[in-house]
Structures are given as C-alpha cells and as structure tokens.
Write a structure and sequence with these properties.
- With about 130 residues, this protein is α+β, with helices and mostly antiparallel strands.
- About 20% of the residues lie in helices and about 40% in strands.
- Strand 2 and strand 3 form a beta hairpin.
- The chain starts with 6 loop residues before the first strand and ends in an 11-residue tail after the last strand.
C-alpha cells in the first residue's frame, strides 16, 4: 500500500532538481506534484517548451486536421528526444530506494514518470 506522505527527490543527469510528492502509480507510471529546486533551472526550458507545445492548438475545429502544425509537431518530437536523453531517476525518501525513470513529463506542478519495473514490483500498484 502506498504511504500517503511518500516523497521523492528527482535527479536529472545526477543533479538533484527538486521534490516530488508521490500521489500514486498506475502500472509502471507514477504521478505526483513537483516542486523544483535550484538545480532544475538548467532543465526548465526543455520542460517549459514541451508543456507549451503539448497545450498548443492550431485553432482548427476539424478533428481530422490535428492539433499541431507539422512544424510544431517536429519541434515537439525534438524536445521529447532531448528530455528522453536525460538520465532521470527518483530517490524515494521513506524507503531509501532508487527508481530508474524511463520517461518523464513535467507540466507545471504536475509530474509523471514511467519506471522499468513489472507491475507487481511497483508500490501501490492496483
């Protein structure tokens, strides 16, 4: 069972970049609230660009037209590749446990991450 006050430290390229209040896991995906520390300023532009592109809308009411222009979709792909190249890991403070992160999304105060663990090894997994 997931502890209600489980916190973690997020590390990017071996730099402590902030605190995560873990809200839970859904299979191999974890989610929570992110509070950036000083170390995050180096990485913030990548995640800010990702967030802006993810929320971009070309103004079209036609669902077949798509939400992003081809140029914006290419820019999003490049930003996602940059983020995916970061060496990300979480340190769960209470259990003193490291968790490797395969994919990471930070959107304002929200964070979600994909771990490379089978579902039965993930704390709090349903």
């Amino acid at each position: 069972m997931l502890h209600a006050k489980l916190t973690a430290r997020l590390f990017l390229n071996d730099r402590d970049v902030g605190t995560v209040k873990v809200k839970g896991w859904d299979d191999s995906w974890g989610f929570g609230e992110f509070s950036p520390g000083e170390g995050f300023s180096h990485f913030a532009p990548r995640f800010g660009a990702w967030s802006l592109l993810m929320h971009a809308d070309d103004g079209s009411d036609d669902p077949a037209h798509g939400r992003l222009s081809a140029a914006a979709a290419e820019e999003l792909r490049q930003v996602e590749q940059e983020i995916d190249r970061l060496h990300a890991k979480l340190f769960l403070v209470g259990p003193q446990e490291w968790r490797p992160v395969a994919q990471l999304n930070i959107d304002g105060p929200l964070i979600e991450w994909k771990e490379n663990y089978p579902r039965e090894d993930v704390p709090g997994a349903a």
